[in-house]
Amino acid sequence: MSVAAPPPSAFADTVLTRLIEVYGAEADPERAARMRAYMKDVAPFLGLPSPRRRELSKAVVAGTPRPDETDLTAVALRCWELPEREYAYFAVDLLRRHLRRLTSSFLPVARQLVVTVPWWDTVDLLAAHVVGGLVAADPALTADMDAWIEDGDLWVARTALLHQLRHKESTDTERLFAYCLRQAGHPDFFIRKAIGWSLREYAKTDPDAVRSFVAAHRDVLAPLSVREALKATG
Question: Which of 34, 81, 155, 174 is 20 to 30 A (C-alpha) from 145?
């Protein structure tokens, strides 16, 4: 996959300058060390607790114009270039807030974010709130999800499994179940957990369908996937 460079954006210039200054001023090295350890050393942290980070984010974007897709792409890619994890969190929050400004053309950028310094903290939010939103807005992107579930990168496959988490009654049940079966034998915890999580979430909408699916395929689903799937079925 070719790596996209951040496009020029005056909005991104302003936001990144503010962001680095505002976030950096409240860095807490002791908390940062704890956060990094909790996240298995995937990246350094500034040590900002989530509630305070969101307050600071409001100050960062205060008075700025509404961003377009180019602006959002530039901010996301530039945030991902910064080492501390909170910058990626800021980018995801901004993408979620302005999801309707994104088109199908953003999907390759989302994939780049998924595979760059990947861990569940960023991947899961991108899957459920960004990729899932793009697919809901443009059903033609289901073809991309069909390719992603086959991908050798476990985080791309996990994104495909989780992209319908918020779709509720609009869930493509046939595709959800097919994806779960496609990756049922995967040896990695994060895939098996994602299978169970996607089924558990859909069970809040149709518990009978999930119970029937698990009963029919218990022999191929991992025990972890089964336990997670049935938590919401009563």
Answer: 81
